[in-house]
């Protein structure tokens, strides 16, 4: 795997070839905002609620799926696609600073 360093949230952070954080503990709201900008997404409180949900699921070792986000009680699946257009799970996971879910290609 090819690693790169990007400036995110004002600090140098290592990412993999797809732009996912190598070390999830490097993540914070500023890093998320910079990652979201790359996807042309302006983060709102609802975005952050979804990102925190995904981070908590990943920390617990749970499988992350679009369905689990839809059942989160935060948003439904349609809203998920609105918040993170064109590949919501892939984009949301990247912005959340967690590794790409195995269900994403």
Secondary-structure blueprint of this entry?
Blueprint: E1 4-8, E2 11-15, H1 29-38, H2 45-59, H3 66-70, H4 77-83, H5 88-95
Antiparallel strand pairs: 1-2
Summary?
The protein is mainly alpha-helical.
Average pLDDT, all residues: 94
Q: How would you spell out the order of helices and strands?
A: EEHHHHH
Strand content: 5-15%
N- to C-terminal separation?
16 Å
Task: Please give the count of helices.
Answer: 5
Q: Pairing-aware structural class of the strands and helices?
A: mainly alpha
How can the largest sheet be summarized?
2 strands, antiparallel
Number of strands: 2
Give the overall silhouette: globular
Uncertain regions: pLDDT < 50 for 5+ in a row? none
Helix content: 40-55%
Give the strand order, joined by hyphens, for the main sheet. 1-2
Radius of gyration from the CA trace?
13 Å
Structure overview:
The mean pLDDT is 94. The protein is built from five helices and two strands, in the order ββααααα. By secondary structure, the protein is mainly α. Strands 1-2 form a two-stranded antiparallel ribbon. The chain has helices at residues 29-38, 45-59, 66-70, 77-83, 88-95, and strands at residues 4-8, 11-15. The longest helix has 15 residues, at 45-59. Helices cover 43% and strands 10% of the residues.
